[in-house]
Design brief:
Strand content: 5-15%
Structural class: alpha+beta
Distance between the termini: 26 Å
Mean pLDDT: 80
Largest sheet: 5 strands, mixed
Helix content: 40-55%
Strand order of the largest sheet: 1-2-5-3-4
Shape: globular
CATH architecture of the domain at 80-204: 2-Layer Sandwich
């Protein structure tokens, strides 16, 4: 059974005296914190289990088929490049725009059509999960004026909306989909430019919630 971290227990003891001298009120407060911690740990376990299963489903869906594997031997251009990360409690599946989209356009490439088809199979397994499609456009000139940056953000938004529309055409519930331009004038990491990401949001019962231990 999960117990309160030792540091939290010691902090509680310093505030309220040693274990043997705790009042009934202090004991009740400690038990409440213990229950909250156990509940939060259970939430986190459900969240981790769900995202591990989702990550495996994505990896299986995007894996090259046998004939593709033979054709792409030594030719990495035919292999879908993507990353899977957990950020801020959400699962991020990120694709390179050079594979997903036509250069400078809000249109899917032939490989992009294949990626959407494969990811549709994954999304169909989690029909109630909210998904945000975000897109970043590569910026090669950092000294863009306001109008040029507006065009960059506009292209990113159009691309995200286009990918969202493709999922809708495949039968994905539109109320579970959202689109956003992630291009930012303050973009610091060039590796994040030129990418489109599918952000799988946690379900309400999966969100890890830990009490604010330091509150008096």
């Amino acid at each position: 059974m999960h117990r309160l971290p030792a540091a939290k227990t010691m902090r509680f003891n310093r505030r309220h005296g040693r274990t043997g001298r705790r009042s009934a009120t202090h004991r009740a407060e400690y038990d409440t914190l213990e229950q909250q911690y156990q509940k939060a740990t259970a939430w986190r376990a459900r969240w981790e289990e769900a995202f591990v299963k989702l990550s495996k489903a994505v990896s299986i869906a995007l894996a090259p088929e046998e004939n593709e594997d033979e054709e792409s031997d030594g030719n990495m251009e035919n292999v879908i490049r993507y990353t899977i990360d957990v950020l801020n409690g959400s699962l991020h599946v990120t694709f390179k725009n050079e594979q997903l989209l036509k250069k400078g356009k809000a249109e899917l490439s032939p490989m992009g059509l294949d990626i959407v088809e494969r990811m549709t199979e994954v999304i169909e397994r989690v029909p109630d999960r909210k998904i945000t499609i975000g897109s970043r456009t590569t910026v090669r000139n950092e000294n863009l004026n306001h109008a040029q940056w507006f065009q960059v953000r506009e292209l990113s938004a159009k691309r995200a909306l286009m990918v969202m529309a493709m999922f809708e055409k495949k039968g994905i519930n539109p109320t579970n989909l959202a689109a956003a331009s992630l291009s930012n004038r303050l973009e610091e990491d060039p590796l994040e430019q030129g990418t489109t990401v599918l952000i799988f949001q946690p379900m309400p019962g999966e969100i890890p919630r830990f009490p604010e231990w330091n509150k008096q």
